Amino acid sequence: MNYNVNEKGYYGEFGGAFIPEMLYPNVEELRQNYLKVMAEPSFQEEFNQLLKDYVGRPSPLYFAKRLSEKYNTKIYLKREDLNHTGAHKINNTIGQILMAKRLGKTRIIAETGAGQHGVATATVCALMGLECIVYMGEVDIARQAPNVARMKMLGASVVPAKSGSRTLKDATNEAIRDWINNPVNTHYIIGSAIGPHPYPDMVTRFQSVISEEIKWQLKEHEGRENPDYVVACIGGGSNAAGTYYHFLHEKDVNIIAVEAAGHGVDSGESAATSVLGKEGVIHGCKTLLMQTKDGQITEPYSISAGLDYPGVGPMHAHLCKTGRAEFMAITDDDAMNAGLELCKLEGIIPAIESSHALAIFEQKSFKPDDIVVVSLSGRGDKDLQNYIDYFGF
Amino acid sequence: MNRLQQKLQEDKKLLSIYFTAGFPSLNDTVSIIEDLEKNGVDLIEIGLPFSDPLADGPTIQASSTQALKNGMTTEILFNQLKDIRKTVNIPLIIMGYFNPMLQYGVEAFCKQCQEIGIDGLIIPDLPVDVYHDEYKAIFDKYGLINVFLITPQTSEERIRYIDSISNGFIYMVSSASVTGSQSGFGDEQTAYFKRIADMNLKNPQIVGFGINNNETFTQATTYAKGAIIGSAFIKHASSEKLDTIGDFVNTILQ
After folding, report:
1. Which residues in this protein are found as N6-(pyridoxal phosphate)lysine (chain A) (predicted)?
2. Could you tell me if the ipTM is greater than 0.90?
3. Is A371 inside a domain boundary?
Protein backbone atom coordinates (compact mmCIF):
# COMPACT_ATOMS: atom_id res chain seq x y z
CA MET A 1 0.00 0.00 0.00
CA ASN A 2 1.27 3.45 -0.93
CA TYR A 3 0.31 6.30 1.39
CA ASN A 4 2.04 9.03 -0.57
CA VAL A 5 0.53 10.96 -3.43
CA ASN A 6 0.62 9.31 -6.87
CA GLU A 7 1.66 11.02 -10.09
CA LYS A 8 -1.93 12.10 -10.78
CA GLY A 9 -2.28 13.79 -7.42
CA TYR A 10 -4.32 11.13 -5.64
CA TYR A 11 -4.01 9.32 -2.33
CA GLY A 12 -5.97 6.18 -3.21
CA GLU A 13 -9.32 7.57 -4.32
CA PHE A 14 -8.84 10.95 -2.61
CA GLY A 15 -7.17 14.14 -3.78
CA GLY A 16 -6.96 15.40 -7.35
CA ALA A 17 -7.42 18.97 -8.50
CA PHE A 18 -11.12 19.87 -8.78
CA ILE A 19 -10.63 23.47 -9.74
CA PRO A 20 -12.34 25.86 -12.11
CA GLU A 21 -10.50 26.43 -15.36
CA MET A 22 -9.65 29.96 -14.17
CA LEU A 23 -7.25 28.44 -11.64
CA TYR A 24 -5.74 25.86 -13.97
CA PRO A 25 -2.69 27.91 -15.07
CA ASN A 26 -1.78 28.84 -11.47
CA VAL A 27 -2.12 25.33 -10.10
CA GLU A 28 -0.45 23.77 -13.13
CA GLU A 29 2.52 26.13 -12.82
CA LEU A 30 2.92 25.02 -9.23
CA ARG A 31 2.45 21.35 -10.05
CA GLN A 32 5.12 21.43 -12.73
CA ASN A 33 7.62 23.24 -10.55
CA TYR A 34 7.22 22.39 -6.90
CA LEU A 35 9.31 19.21 -6.76
CA LYS A 36 11.99 20.66 -8.98
CA VAL A 37 12.24 23.83 -6.90
CA MET A 38 12.25 21.92 -3.61
CA ALA A 39 15.07 19.71 -4.85
CA GLU A 40 17.34 22.64 -5.72
CA PRO A 41 20.31 22.76 -3.34
CA SER A 42 19.96 26.53 -2.96
CA PHE A 43 16.33 26.12 -1.95
CA GLN A 44 17.16 23.37 0.54
CA GLU A 45 19.93 25.45 2.01
CA GLU A 46 17.82 28.57 2.44
CA PHE A 47 14.86 26.61 3.82
CA ASN A 48 16.96 24.73 6.35
CA GLN A 49 18.84 27.84 7.40
CA LEU A 50 15.62 29.73 8.08
CA LEU A 51 14.13 26.78 9.95
CA LYS A 52 17.21 26.74 12.15
CA ASP A 53 17.96 30.44 12.71
CA TYR A 54 14.53 32.00 12.34
CA VAL A 55 12.05 29.35 13.44
CA GLY A 56 14.35 27.84 16.07
CA ARG A 57 14.46 24.27 14.82
CA PRO A 58 14.99 21.53 15.66
CA SER A 59 12.10 21.71 18.08
CA PRO A 60 12.81 19.57 21.15
CA LEU A 61 11.51 16.05 21.56
CA TYR A 62 10.70 16.16 25.24
CA PHE A 63 10.18 13.13 27.47
CA ALA A 64 7.15 14.09 29.57
CA LYS A 65 8.09 12.30 32.77
CA ARG A 66 5.17 13.14 35.04
CA LEU A 67 2.58 12.69 32.28
CA SER A 68 4.19 9.33 31.49
CA GLU A 69 4.03 8.29 35.13
CA LYS A 70 0.37 9.17 35.36
CA TYR A 71 -0.57 7.10 32.32
CA ASN A 72 2.02 4.39 32.90
CA THR A 73 3.60 4.60 29.46
CA LYS A 74 6.40 6.56 27.78
CA ILE A 75 5.14 9.84 26.36
CA TYR A 76 7.30 12.15 24.27
CA LEU A 77 6.10 15.58 23.20
CA LYS A 78 7.28 17.04 19.90
CA ARG A 79 7.50 20.69 20.86
CA GLU A 80 6.19 22.54 17.78
CA ASP A 81 4.75 25.02 20.27
CA LEU A 82 8.26 26.39 20.75
CA ASN A 83 8.59 27.48 17.12
CA HIS A 84 8.58 31.16 16.23
CA THR A 85 4.93 32.33 16.03
CA GLY A 86 3.91 29.54 18.36
CA ALA A 87 2.95 26.59 16.19
CA HIS A 88 3.95 24.24 13.38
CA LYS A 89 2.31 26.54 10.79
CA ILE A 90 5.55 28.46 10.19
CA ASN A 91 7.32 25.41 8.70
CA ASN A 92 4.93 25.52 5.78
CA THR A 93 4.82 29.28 5.30
CA ILE A 94 8.63 29.48 5.20
CA GLY A 95 8.64 26.78 2.53
CA GLN A 96 5.89 28.35 0.49
CA ILE A 97 7.25 31.89 0.60
CA LEU A 98 10.56 30.61 -0.77
CA MET A 99 8.60 28.72 -3.44
CA ALA A 100 6.64 31.88 -4.31
CA LYS A 101 9.83 33.90 -4.66
CA ARG A 102 11.37 31.34 -6.98
CA LEU A 103 8.22 31.38 -9.11
CA GLY A 104 8.55 35.16 -9.38
CA LYS A 105 5.41 36.00 -7.38
CA THR A 106 5.16 39.40 -5.72
CA ARG A 107 1.86 39.17 -3.90
CA ILE A 108 0.82 36.61 -1.27
CA ILE A 109 -2.67 35.65 -0.20
CA ALA A 110 -3.78 33.29 2.56
CA GLU A 111 -6.87 32.16 4.42
CA THR A 112 -7.01 31.86 8.15
CA GLY A 113 -9.46 30.59 10.75
CA ALA A 114 -8.20 31.38 14.23
CA GLY A 115 -5.43 33.48 12.75
CA GLN A 116 -2.43 31.21 13.36
CA HIS A 117 -1.79 30.54 9.69
CA GLY A 118 -2.53 34.18 8.94
CA VAL A 119 0.10 35.28 11.45
CA ALA A 120 2.61 32.73 10.12
CA THR A 121 2.00 34.01 6.58
CA ALA A 122 2.17 37.68 7.56
CA THR A 123 5.43 36.88 9.36
CA VAL A 124 7.19 35.37 6.36
CA CYS A 125 5.86 38.12 4.08
CA ALA A 126 7.41 40.70 6.38
CA LEU A 127 10.60 38.66 6.38
CA MET A 128 10.72 38.63 2.57
CA GLY A 129 9.19 42.07 1.96
CA LEU A 130 6.20 40.78 0.00
CA GLU A 131 2.67 42.16 -0.04
CA CYS A 132 0.34 40.05 2.10
CA ILE A 133 -3.45 39.80 2.08
CA VAL A 134 -5.13 37.49 4.58
CA TYR A 135 -8.77 36.49 4.25
CA MET A 136 -10.53 35.82 7.52
CA GLY A 137 -14.20 35.19 8.27
CA GLU A 138 -16.00 38.16 9.77
CA VAL A 139 -17.07 36.00 12.70
CA ASP A 140 -13.48 34.88 13.33
CA ILE A 141 -12.17 38.45 13.13
CA ALA A 142 -14.52 39.37 15.94
CA ARG A 143 -13.43 36.48 18.20
CA GLN A 144 -9.68 36.48 17.44
CA ALA A 145 -8.80 40.14 17.92
CA PRO A 146 -5.19 39.61 19.13
CA ASN A 147 -4.23 37.65 16.01
CA VAL A 148 -5.87 40.26 13.78
CA ALA A 149 -3.72 42.88 15.51
CA ARG A 150 -0.59 40.72 15.07
CA MET A 151 -1.19 40.40 11.34
CA LYS A 152 -1.69 44.14 11.00
CA MET A 153 1.49 44.86 12.99
CA LEU A 154 3.32 42.56 10.59
CA GLY A 155 2.10 44.65 7.68
CA ALA A 156 -0.63 42.40 6.30
CA SER A 157 -4.06 43.50 5.13
CA VAL A 158 -6.79 41.49 6.79
CA VAL A 159 -9.86 41.23 4.56
CA PRO A 160 -13.12 40.08 6.14
CA ALA A 161 -14.95 37.22 4.41
CA LYS A 162 -18.57 38.26 4.57
CA SER A 163 -20.16 35.47 2.57
CA GLY A 164 -21.79 32.24 3.74
CA SER A 165 -21.10 31.36 7.36
CA ARG A 166 -18.27 33.96 7.57
CA THR A 167 -15.74 31.49 9.01
CA LEU A 168 -12.72 29.49 7.75
CA LYS A 169 -14.35 27.79 4.78
CA ASP A 170 -15.66 31.13 3.54
CA ALA A 171 -12.26 32.76 4.06
CA THR A 172 -10.87 29.94 1.88
CA ASN A 173 -13.49 30.64 -0.80
CA GLU A 174 -12.55 34.32 -0.77
CA ALA A 175 -8.84 33.55 -1.05
CA ILE A 176 -9.55 31.28 -4.02
CA ARG A 177 -11.61 34.06 -5.63
CA ASP A 178 -8.75 36.49 -5.11
CA TRP A 179 -6.44 34.02 -6.85
CA ILE A 180 -8.87 33.77 -9.77
CA ASN A 181 -8.85 37.57 -10.02
CA ASN A 182 -5.03 37.78 -9.79
CA PRO A 183 -3.72 34.83 -11.76
CA VAL A 184 -0.26 36.06 -12.68
CA ASN A 185 1.55 37.78 -9.81
CA THR A 186 -0.04 36.06 -6.81
CA HIS A 187 0.81 32.94 -4.82
CA TYR A 188 -1.79 31.43 -2.53
CA ILE A 189 -0.24 30.02 0.65
CA ILE A 190 -2.71 27.37 1.77
CA GLY A 191 -2.27 26.67 5.45
CA SER A 192 -3.26 23.05 5.70
CA ALA A 193 -2.78 19.76 3.86
CA ILE A 194 -5.86 20.48 1.76
CA GLY A 195 -6.68 22.06 -1.58
CA PRO A 196 -5.98 20.94 -5.13
CA HIS A 197 -2.92 18.85 -5.93
CA PRO A 198 -0.04 19.67 -5.44
CA TYR A 199 -0.95 21.57 -2.25
CA PRO A 200 -1.58 18.61 0.08
CA ASP A 201 1.72 17.03 -0.96
CA MET A 202 3.69 20.28 -0.91
CA VAL A 203 2.41 21.26 2.54
CA THR A 204 3.09 17.73 3.81
CA ARG A 205 6.66 17.85 2.54
CA PHE A 206 7.32 21.19 4.21
CA GLN A 207 5.84 19.88 7.46
CA SER A 208 7.67 16.55 7.21
CA VAL A 209 10.60 18.12 9.04
CA ILE A 210 8.62 17.23 12.17
CA SER A 211 8.86 13.45 11.68
CA GLU A 212 12.37 13.73 10.22
CA GLU A 213 13.52 15.26 13.51
CA ILE A 214 11.51 12.81 15.63
CA LYS A 215 13.48 9.95 14.07
CA TRP A 216 16.94 11.12 15.01
CA GLN A 217 15.82 12.63 18.29
CA LEU A 218 14.18 9.40 19.40
CA LYS A 219 17.30 7.54 18.38
CA GLU A 220 19.24 9.74 20.81
CA HIS A 221 16.73 9.20 23.61
CA GLU A 222 15.81 5.58 23.15
CA GLY A 223 18.31 4.11 20.73
CA ARG A 224 15.66 3.54 18.08
CA GLU A 225 14.10 5.71 15.40
CA ASN A 226 10.57 4.37 15.42
CA PRO A 227 8.12 4.95 18.25
CA ASP A 228 5.22 2.56 18.80
CA TYR A 229 2.71 5.35 18.23
CA VAL A 230 2.63 8.79 16.67
CA VAL A 231 -0.30 10.96 17.66
CA ALA A 232 -1.53 14.27 16.24
CA CYS A 233 -4.70 16.33 16.14
CA ILE A 234 -6.40 16.87 12.79
CA GLY A 235 -8.34 19.80 11.40
CA GLY A 236 -7.23 19.99 7.78
CA GLY A 237 -4.28 17.95 8.97
CA SER A 238 -0.96 19.72 8.29
CA ASN A 239 0.75 19.04 11.63
CA ALA A 240 -0.52 15.46 11.49
CA ALA A 241 0.77 15.01 7.93
CA GLY A 242 4.18 16.25 9.01
CA THR A 243 4.20 14.10 12.15
CA TYR A 244 3.28 10.93 10.26
CA TYR A 245 5.19 11.46 7.03
CA HIS A 246 8.38 9.49 7.68
CA PHE A 247 6.45 6.77 9.53
CA LEU A 248 3.73 6.15 6.95
CA HIS A 249 5.47 3.10 5.55
CA GLU A 250 6.97 1.88 8.85
CA LYS A 251 4.67 -1.00 9.70
CA ASP A 252 5.65 -1.13 13.37
CA VAL A 253 4.57 2.48 13.95
CA ASN A 254 0.89 2.93 14.81
CA ILE A 255 -0.71 6.18 13.68
CA ILE A 256 -3.40 7.91 15.71
CA ALA A 257 -5.38 10.84 14.31
CA VAL A 258 -7.39 12.89 16.79
CA GLU A 259 -10.41 14.82 15.59
CA ALA A 260 -12.55 17.33 17.44
CA ALA A 261 -15.86 15.83 18.58
CA GLY A 262 -17.09 19.25 19.73
CA HIS A 263 -20.07 18.68 22.01
CA GLY A 264 -20.07 15.00 21.02
CA VAL A 265 -19.93 13.18 17.70
CA ASP A 266 -23.73 12.77 17.60
CA SER A 267 -24.59 16.16 19.08
CA GLY A 268 -24.93 18.00 15.78
CA GLU A 269 -22.08 20.25 16.91
CA SER A 270 -18.91 18.44 15.97
CA ALA A 271 -15.97 18.46 13.58
CA ALA A 272 -15.32 14.69 13.54
CA THR A 273 -15.09 14.38 9.78
CA SER A 274 -13.99 10.74 9.67
CA VAL A 275 -17.24 9.73 11.39
CA LEU A 276 -19.64 12.35 10.05
CA GLY A 277 -18.12 12.98 6.64
CA LYS A 278 -18.73 11.39 3.28
CA GLU A 279 -16.65 11.45 0.14
CA GLY A 280 -17.09 14.79 -1.57
CA VAL A 281 -15.30 17.73 -3.18
CA ILE A 282 -14.27 20.81 -1.24
CA HIS A 283 -11.76 23.57 -2.03
CA GLY A 284 -10.33 21.67 -4.96
CA CYS A 285 -9.92 18.12 -3.68
CA LYS A 286 -11.92 14.95 -3.25
CA THR A 287 -11.88 13.95 0.37
CA LEU A 288 -14.04 13.14 3.38
CA LEU A 289 -16.35 16.05 3.91
CA MET A 290 -19.16 17.04 6.26
CA GLN A 291 -22.16 17.79 4.12
CA THR A 292 -25.91 17.46 3.81
CA LYS A 293 -27.51 14.58 1.93
CA ASP A 294 -27.82 17.05 -0.91
CA GLY A 295 -24.09 17.81 -1.09
CA GLN A 296 -24.14 21.23 0.59
CA ILE A 297 -21.14 21.73 2.85
CA THR A 298 -22.09 22.03 6.51
CA GLU A 299 -20.60 24.13 9.27
CA PRO A 300 -18.49 22.12 11.72
CA TYR A 301 -18.14 22.99 15.38
CA SER A 302 -15.25 22.73 17.81
CA ILE A 303 -14.08 24.85 20.73
CA SER A 304 -10.78 24.84 18.90
CA ALA A 305 -10.79 27.16 15.89
CA GLY A 306 -7.91 25.24 14.29
CA LEU A 307 -9.90 22.00 14.12
CA ASP A 308 -13.07 23.69 12.94
CA TYR A 309 -12.93 22.62 9.27
CA PRO A 310 -15.60 20.54 7.48
CA GLY A 311 -13.08 18.31 5.69
CA VAL A 312 -9.74 16.58 6.25
CA GLY A 313 -6.77 16.53 3.90
CA PRO A 314 -6.97 13.82 1.22
CA MET A 315 -3.96 11.99 2.65
CA HIS A 316 -5.82 11.57 5.94
CA ALA A 317 -9.00 10.47 4.19
CA HIS A 318 -6.89 7.73 2.62
CA LEU A 319 -5.26 6.79 5.94
CA CYS A 320 -8.76 6.54 7.43
CA LYS A 321 -10.28 4.53 4.60
CA THR A 322 -7.40 2.05 4.47
CA GLY A 323 -7.29 1.70 8.25
CA ARG A 324 -3.62 2.78 8.34
CA ALA A 325 -4.49 5.38 10.96
CA GLU A 326 -6.76 4.94 13.95
CA PHE A 327 -9.12 7.90 14.22
CA MET A 328 -10.32 9.06 17.63
CA ALA A 329 -12.74 11.87 18.46
CA ILE A 330 -12.27 14.06 21.55
CA THR A 331 -14.92 16.38 22.98
CA ASP A 332 -14.40 20.00 23.98
CA ASP A 333 -14.59 19.05 27.66
CA ASP A 334 -12.04 16.24 27.44
CA ALA A 335 -9.66 18.43 25.45
CA MET A 336 -9.90 21.33 27.88
CA ASN A 337 -9.21 19.06 30.85
CA ALA A 338 -6.26 17.43 29.09
CA GLY A 339 -4.87 20.89 28.34
CA LEU A 340 -5.10 21.92 31.96
CA GLU A 341 -3.54 18.65 33.06
CA LEU A 342 -0.48 19.29 30.90
CA CYS A 343 -0.13 22.71 32.54
CA LYS A 344 -0.15 21.17 36.01
CA LEU A 345 2.02 18.12 35.28
CA GLU A 346 4.58 19.51 32.85
CA GLY A 347 4.39 23.29 33.06
CA ILE A 348 3.35 23.62 29.43
CA ILE A 349 0.24 25.51 28.31
CA PRO A 350 -0.84 23.84 25.07
CA ALA A 351 -3.00 25.14 22.24
CA ILE A 352 -6.52 23.71 22.48
CA GLU A 353 -5.91 21.91 19.18
CA SER A 354 -2.97 20.04 20.70
CA SER A 355 -4.96 19.37 23.87
CA HIS A 356 -7.21 17.13 21.79
CA ALA A 357 -4.24 14.89 21.03
CA LEU A 358 -3.27 14.80 24.72
CA ALA A 359 -6.78 13.73 25.73
CA ILE A 360 -6.45 10.27 24.19
CA PHE A 361 -4.60 8.99 27.27
CA GLU A 362 -7.85 9.04 29.26
CA GLN A 363 -9.51 6.92 26.56
CA LYS A 364 -6.89 4.49 25.41
CA SER A 365 -4.42 2.39 27.38
CA PHE A 366 -0.84 1.93 26.33
CA LYS A 367 1.68 -0.61 27.57
CA PRO A 368 4.31 0.61 30.08
CA ASP A 369 7.12 0.24 27.57
CA ASP A 370 5.23 1.70 24.61
CA ILE A 371 6.80 4.84 23.22
CA VAL A 372 4.09 7.34 22.25
CA VAL A 373 5.11 10.54 20.46
CA VAL A 374 2.49 13.29 20.56
CA SER A 375 2.75 16.36 18.37
CA LEU A 376 2.32 19.38 20.58
CA SER A 377 1.41 21.46 17.54
CA GLY A 378 0.99 24.84 19.19
CA ARG A 379 1.17 26.85 22.37
CA GLY A 380 -1.84 28.04 24.31
CA ASP A 381 -1.22 31.81 24.49
CA LYS A 382 -3.75 32.44 21.73
CA ASP A 383 -6.33 30.38 23.66
CA LEU A 384 -5.99 32.11 26.98
CA GLN A 385 -9.39 33.76 26.75
CA ASN A 386 -10.98 30.40 25.95
CA TYR A 387 -9.28 28.77 28.92
CA ILE A 388 -10.33 31.67 31.15
CA ASP A 389 -13.94 31.49 30.00
CA TYR A 390 -14.07 27.71 30.28
CA PHE A 391 -12.47 27.27 33.70
CA GLY A 392 -13.53 30.61 35.13
CA PHE A 393 -10.02 31.67 36.19
CA MET B 1 -28.48 16.77 -32.91
CA ASN B 2 -29.99 18.16 -29.74
CA ARG B 3 -31.75 21.47 -29.16
CA LEU B 4 -28.53 23.19 -28.11
CA GLN B 5 -26.57 22.14 -31.19
CA GLN B 6 -29.47 23.26 -33.41
CA LYS B 7 -29.68 26.62 -31.68
CA LEU B 8 -25.94 27.16 -32.15
CA GLN B 9 -26.40 26.77 -35.91
CA GLU B 10 -28.95 29.58 -36.16
CA ASP B 11 -27.69 32.64 -37.97
CA LYS B 12 -27.90 35.09 -35.06
CA LYS B 13 -26.08 36.20 -31.95
CA LEU B 14 -27.34 34.31 -28.93
CA LEU B 15 -28.34 35.70 -25.57
CA SER B 16 -28.04 33.28 -22.70
CA ILE B 17 -29.32 34.08 -19.23
CA TYR B 18 -28.16 32.44 -16.00
CA PHE B 19 -30.36 32.44 -12.95
CA THR B 20 -30.13 30.70 -9.60
CA ALA B 21 -32.93 28.21 -9.12
CA GLY B 22 -34.90 28.87 -5.94
CA PHE B 23 -34.22 32.62 -6.01
CA PRO B 24 -35.80 35.00 -5.23
CA SER B 25 -38.47 32.48 -4.14
CA LEU B 26 -38.32 28.70 -4.10
CA ASN B 27 -41.01 28.23 -6.76
CA ASP B 28 -40.01 30.95 -9.25
CA THR B 29 -38.04 28.51 -11.41
CA VAL B 30 -40.63 27.62 -14.04
CA SER B 31 -42.09 31.09 -14.46
CA ILE B 32 -38.62 32.64 -14.86
CA ILE B 33 -37.75 30.14 -17.58
CA GLU B 34 -41.05 30.70 -19.40
CA ASP B 35 -40.72 34.48 -19.22
CA LEU B 36 -37.16 34.43 -20.47
CA GLU B 37 -38.15 32.36 -23.49
CA LYS B 38 -41.19 34.52 -24.19
CA ASN B 39 -38.97 37.62 -24.21
CA GLY B 40 -36.54 36.30 -26.77
CA VAL B 41 -33.75 34.72 -24.75
CA ASP B 42 -32.06 31.97 -26.76
CA LEU B 43 -30.63 29.76 -24.09
CA ILE B 44 -31.01 29.42 -20.32
CA GLU B 45 -28.58 28.28 -17.66
CA ILE B 46 -30.39 27.06 -14.59
CA GLY B 47 -28.13 27.44 -11.57
CA LEU B 48 -28.23 24.60 -9.07
CA PRO B 49 -27.32 26.45 -5.86
CA PHE B 50 -24.24 25.40 -3.88
CA SER B 51 -23.07 26.45 -0.43
CA ASP B 52 -19.52 27.27 -1.58
CA PRO B 53 -19.58 28.57 -5.17
CA LEU B 54 -15.92 29.51 -5.42
CA ALA B 55 -15.92 30.71 -9.03
CA ASP B 56 -18.75 33.12 -8.34
CA GLY B 57 -18.79 36.63 -7.02
CA PRO B 58 -20.94 38.06 -4.22
CA THR B 59 -24.15 38.43 -6.25
CA ILE B 60 -24.45 34.80 -7.29
CA GLN B 61 -23.16 33.57 -3.94
CA ALA B 62 -25.83 35.61 -2.13
CA SER B 63 -28.56 34.31 -4.43
CA SER B 64 -27.33 30.74 -3.87
CA THR B 65 -27.34 31.19 -0.11
CA GLN B 66 -30.88 32.58 -0.29
CA ALA B 67 -32.03 29.77 -2.59
CA LEU B 68 -30.71 27.17 -0.15
CA LYS B 69 -32.42 28.99 2.72
CA ASN B 70 -35.60 28.88 0.67
CA GLY B 71 -35.21 25.11 0.70
CA MET B 72 -33.93 24.40 -2.79
CA THR B 73 -32.47 20.91 -3.31
CA THR B 74 -31.50 18.87 -6.35
CA GLU B 75 -34.63 16.76 -5.92
CA ILE B 76 -36.92 19.78 -5.72
CA LEU B 77 -35.34 21.36 -8.79
CA PHE B 78 -35.86 18.19 -10.81
CA ASN B 79 -39.49 18.08 -9.65
CA GLN B 80 -40.06 21.71 -10.63
CA LEU B 81 -38.64 21.01 -14.08
CA LYS B 82 -40.39 17.73 -14.79
CA ASP B 83 -43.00 19.20 -17.15
CA ILE B 84 -40.87 22.06 -18.48
CA ARG B 85 -40.73 20.66 -22.00
CA LYS B 86 -44.53 21.00 -22.31
CA THR B 87 -44.12 24.77 -22.40
CA VAL B 88 -40.50 25.61 -23.19
CA ASN B 89 -38.59 24.88 -26.39
CA ILE B 90 -35.27 26.70 -26.10
CA PRO B 91 -32.16 24.83 -24.91
CA LEU B 92 -31.76 24.47 -21.15
CA ILE B 93 -28.49 23.90 -19.37
CA ILE B 94 -27.96 23.15 -15.71
CA MET B 95 -24.98 24.94 -14.20
CA GLY B 96 -23.77 23.80 -10.84
CA TYR B 97 -20.79 22.72 -8.78
CA PHE B 98 -19.66 19.13 -8.74
CA ASN B 99 -20.32 18.08 -5.16
CA PRO B 100 -24.15 18.16 -5.24
CA MET B 101 -24.05 16.13 -8.47
CA LEU B 102 -21.60 13.67 -6.95
CA GLN B 103 -23.90 13.16 -3.95
CA TYR B 104 -26.96 12.70 -6.16
CA GLY B 105 -24.96 10.21 -8.20
CA VAL B 106 -23.52 11.42 -11.49
CA GLU B 107 -25.34 8.80 -13.54
CA ALA B 108 -28.68 9.32 -11.76
CA PHE B 109 -28.23 13.07 -12.24
CA CYS B 110 -27.60 12.71 -15.96
CA LYS B 111 -30.53 10.31 -16.35
CA GLN B 112 -32.89 12.81 -14.69
CA CYS B 113 -31.58 15.56 -16.96
CA GLN B 114 -32.31 13.47 -20.02
CA GLU B 115 -35.83 12.61 -18.83
CA ILE B 116 -36.61 16.29 -18.21
CA GLY B 117 -35.12 17.47 -21.47
CA ILE B 118 -32.01 19.24 -20.22
CA ASP B 119 -29.54 19.68 -23.07
CA GLY B 120 -26.26 20.24 -21.32
CA LEU B 121 -24.32 20.87 -18.15
CA ILE B 122 -21.73 23.38 -17.00
CA ILE B 123 -19.73 22.22 -13.97
CA PRO B 124 -16.97 24.74 -13.28
CA ASP B 125 -15.06 22.60 -10.79
CA LEU B 126 -15.12 19.36 -12.75
CA PRO B 127 -11.78 19.43 -14.57
CA VAL B 128 -11.58 18.51 -18.22
CA ASP B 129 -9.36 15.46 -17.70
CA VAL B 130 -11.48 14.00 -14.89
CA TYR B 131 -14.58 14.47 -17.06
CA HIS B 132 -12.86 12.81 -19.98
CA ASP B 133 -11.56 9.81 -18.02
CA GLU B 134 -14.47 9.18 -15.67
CA TYR B 135 -17.72 10.77 -16.82
CA LYS B 136 -17.77 11.42 -20.55
CA ALA B 137 -19.25 8.00 -21.31
CA ILE B 138 -22.16 8.71 -18.93
CA PHE B 139 -22.82 12.15 -20.42
CA ASP B 140 -22.77 10.64 -23.91
CA LYS B 141 -25.13 7.85 -22.89
CA TYR B 142 -27.75 10.39 -21.79
CA GLY B 143 -27.20 12.78 -24.69
CA LEU B 144 -25.87 15.60 -22.53
CA ILE B 145 -23.42 18.18 -23.76
CA ASN B 146 -20.76 19.25 -21.27
CA VAL B 147 -19.58 22.82 -21.63
CA PHE B 148 -16.02 23.78 -20.68
CA LEU B 149 -14.59 27.14 -19.77
CA ILE B 150 -11.56 28.91 -21.16
CA THR B 151 -9.98 32.12 -19.85
CA PRO B 152 -7.49 34.69 -21.15
CA GLN B 153 -4.79 32.63 -19.40
CA THR B 154 -5.70 29.34 -21.06
CA SER B 155 -2.89 28.22 -23.36
CA GLU B 156 -3.54 27.71 -27.06
CA GLU B 157 -2.67 24.04 -26.72
CA ARG B 158 -5.22 23.57 -23.96
CA ILE B 159 -7.88 25.51 -25.87
CA ARG B 160 -7.35 23.14 -28.81
CA TYR B 161 -7.67 20.16 -26.48
CA ILE B 162 -10.87 21.55 -24.92
CA ASP B 163 -12.24 22.24 -28.40
CA SER B 164 -11.49 18.67 -29.42
CA ILE B 165 -13.57 17.12 -26.65
CA SER B 166 -16.42 19.67 -26.75
CA ASN B 167 -19.52 19.19 -28.85
CA GLY B 168 -21.61 22.25 -28.04
CA PHE B 169 -20.02 25.57 -27.31
CA ILE B 170 -17.00 26.86 -25.43
CA TYR B 171 -17.72 29.11 -22.47
CA MET B 172 -15.29 31.96 -22.84
CA VAL B 173 -14.64 33.67 -19.51
CA SER B 174 -14.09 37.31 -20.45
CA SER B 175 -11.30 38.13 -18.02
CA ALA B 176 -9.44 36.86 -15.00
CA SER B 177 -12.28 37.25 -12.55
CA VAL B 178 -15.11 35.66 -10.68
CA THR B 179 -18.65 36.37 -11.88
CA GLY B 180 -20.11 39.85 -11.62
CA SER B 181 -16.89 41.62 -10.72
CA GLN B 182 -16.15 44.02 -13.55
CA SER B 183 -17.72 46.67 -15.69
CA GLY B 184 -17.03 47.24 -19.35
CA PHE B 185 -14.54 45.63 -21.70
CA GLY B 186 -11.27 47.25 -22.68
CA ASP B 187 -8.71 46.65 -25.41
CA GLU B 188 -7.34 43.65 -23.56
CA GLN B 189 -10.67 41.82 -23.74
CA THR B 190 -11.27 42.77 -27.36
CA ALA B 191 -7.84 41.45 -28.29
CA TYR B 192 -8.59 38.21 -26.43
CA PHE B 193 -12.01 37.84 -28.12
CA LYS B 194 -10.35 38.36 -31.49
CA ARG B 195 -7.48 35.99 -30.74
CA ILE B 196 -9.92 33.19 -29.93
CA ALA B 197 -12.10 33.97 -32.96
CA ASP B 198 -9.01 33.73 -35.17
CA MET B 199 -8.29 30.23 -33.89
CA ASN B 200 -11.24 28.96 -35.96
CA LEU B 201 -12.32 26.43 -33.36
CA LYS B 202 -14.86 23.81 -34.31
CA ASN B 203 -17.13 24.84 -31.43
CA PRO B 204 -18.67 28.31 -31.32
CA GLN B 205 -17.82 30.46 -28.29
CA ILE B 206 -20.18 32.17 -25.91
CA VAL B 207 -18.73 34.86 -23.67
CA GLY B 208 -19.60 35.05 -20.00
CA PHE B 209 -18.56 37.12 -16.95
CA GLY B 210 -18.86 40.89 -17.14
CA ILE B 211 -21.80 41.16 -19.58
CA ASN B 212 -24.38 43.46 -18.05
CA ASN B 213 -25.84 45.76 -20.73
CA ASN B 214 -26.29 46.27 -24.46
CA GLU B 215 -22.79 47.68 -24.86
CA THR B 216 -20.97 44.72 -23.34
CA PHE B 217 -23.32 42.29 -25.08
CA THR B 218 -22.50 43.90 -28.42
CA GLN B 219 -18.76 43.97 -27.71
CA ALA B 220 -18.76 40.31 -26.74
CA THR B 221 -20.81 39.16 -29.71
CA THR B 222 -18.77 41.08 -32.27
CA TYR B 223 -16.38 38.13 -32.24
CA ALA B 224 -18.28 35.42 -30.39
CA LYS B 225 -21.49 33.54 -31.12
CA GLY B 226 -23.23 34.77 -28.04
CA ALA B 227 -23.02 36.09 -24.53
CA ILE B 228 -24.18 35.01 -21.09
CA ILE B 229 -25.65 37.29 -18.45
CA GLY B 230 -25.76 36.08 -14.87
CA SER B 231 -25.09 38.49 -12.02
CA ALA B 232 -26.78 41.44 -13.75
CA PHE B 233 -29.94 39.38 -14.17
CA ILE B 234 -29.82 38.18 -10.56
CA LYS B 235 -29.50 41.79 -9.42
CA HIS B 236 -32.52 42.67 -11.53
CA ALA B 237 -34.49 39.72 -10.16
CA SER B 238 -33.66 40.62 -6.57
CA SER B 239 -34.52 44.30 -6.79
CA GLU B 240 -37.37 44.36 -9.30
CA LYS B 241 -40.52 42.41 -9.68
CA LEU B 242 -40.19 39.34 -11.83
CA ASP B 243 -42.87 40.70 -14.20
CA THR B 244 -40.28 43.13 -15.59
CA ILE B 245 -38.05 40.38 -17.04
CA GLY B 246 -39.09 41.57 -20.50
CA ASP B 247 -37.79 45.07 -19.81
CA PHE B 248 -34.45 43.66 -18.68
CA VAL B 249 -34.03 41.51 -21.77
CA ASN B 250 -35.04 44.43 -24.01
CA THR B 251 -32.36 46.71 -22.57
CA ILE B 252 -29.76 44.07 -23.47
CA LEU B 253 -30.98 43.32 -26.98
CA GLN B 254 -32.41 46.79 -27.75
Report:
1. 89
2. yes
3. yes
